[in-house]
Amino acid sequence: MTDHFPRPTGTPFTPAWFDHIAVNLSATERRAASLGSRRTVKKEWQAAWLLKAITCIDLTTLAGDDTPGRVQRLCAKARNPVRDDLLAALGVEGITVGAVCVYPTMVPHAVKALEGSGIPVASVATGFPAGLTPLPLRLAEISYAVEQGAREIDIVITREHVLTGNWSALYDEIAAMRAACGEAHMKAILATGDLKTLSNVYKASMIAMQAGSDFIKTSTGKEDVNATLPVSLTMLRALRDFRDLTGQIVGFKPAGGLKTAKDAMTWLILMKEELGLRWMQPDLFRIGASSMLGDIERQLEHHVTGRYSAANRHALA
């Protein structure tokens, strides 16, 4: 049975934990580059890891033309992410994704479609993806999503606070968002592609955790650069430092640009090497993705049959 950690509560604003930090870019890139070459998982072990990855996916649709029908189809896939015949051949049953992530107005449709499944609905909020609406409106959007049934809220930060070094303003903003979430768990999207340096990524990660975030998340998926291994490694080191300083356990979510089964394997290896097996569970690790699920199912079919099928045989929804 998986141990469940107390929900993180955050800490007072403590600049001494991050203001002296300077991340070594070349060393970080060298360590990140070694992940794909130093470790590999094959055969039945690879199939097991890919099944684990499915349970950690936040299956996502965040398009301007989203409709209730699209959300319902996505939720049907969330309930049954792998064909029954493949699961039977693998000796597995009851696999579902970690959550379904949608815009606030789509939350009621997702809640209805997932009723009885135990799969939580996550909603982006706070003026996603730019986060440049007034703070009262961003907090009201959180409240709206929670009232509609969202159990997880993915918030975006004001990048200006990071780029200008206004760390106390960033802390106050995220703390207010956490309060607005109430019982819903909060994932703080740092939009790392906009933060310019890995040192800024570390500092923003630490402040988000001090302000009470349940997860720290790389990206909205809308930036020019989204989840990368060097950024993810930097965030995991901040997460580990925060655990050592406070005893509080915070989750991690890479998002944006993760599309293949190979990506899933690489980030699972990163989690295992940096934080251990416990951080490979869906209460502490999520992958924001949509097309990745189809590629994972295709790889599982290859494992079962020895043949690769056309990608269109594994539609997202």
From TrEMBL:
<dbReference type="GO" id="GO:0005737">
    <property type="term" value="C:cytoplasm"/>
</dbReference>
<protein>
    <recommendedName>
        <fullName>Deoxyribose-phosphate aldolase</fullName>
        <ecNumber>4.1.2.4</ecNumber>
    </recommendedName>
</protein>
<comment type="pathway">
    <text>Carbohydrate degradation; 2-deoxy-D-ribose 1-phosphate degradation; D-glyceraldehyde 3-phosphate and acetaldehyde from 2-deoxy-alpha-D-ribose 1-phosphate: step 2/2.</text>
</comment>
<keyword id="KW-0963">Cytoplasm</keyword>
<dbReference type="GO" id="GO:0016052">
    <property type="term" value="P:carbohydrate catabolic process"/>
</dbReference>
<keyword id="KW-0704">Schiff base</keyword>
<keyword id="KW-0456">Lyase</keyword>
<dbReference type="GO" id="GO:0004139">
    <property type="term" value="F:deoxyribose-phosphate aldolase activity"/>
</dbReference>
<dbReference type="GO" id="GO:0009264">
    <property type="term" value="P:deoxyribonucleotide catabolic process"/>
</dbReference>
<dbReference type="Pfam" id="PF01791">
    <property type="entry name" value="DeoC"/>
</dbReference>
<dbReference type="InterPro" id="IPR002915">
    <property type="entry name" value="DeoC/FbaB/LacD_aldolase"/>
</dbReference>
<dbReference type="InterPro" id="IPR013785">
    <property type="entry name" value="Aldolase_TIM"/>
</dbReference>
<comment type="similarity">
    <text>Belongs to the DeoC/FbaB aldolase family. DeoC type 2 subfamily.</text>
</comment>
<dbReference type="InterPro" id="IPR011343">
    <property type="entry name" value="DeoC"/>
</dbReference>
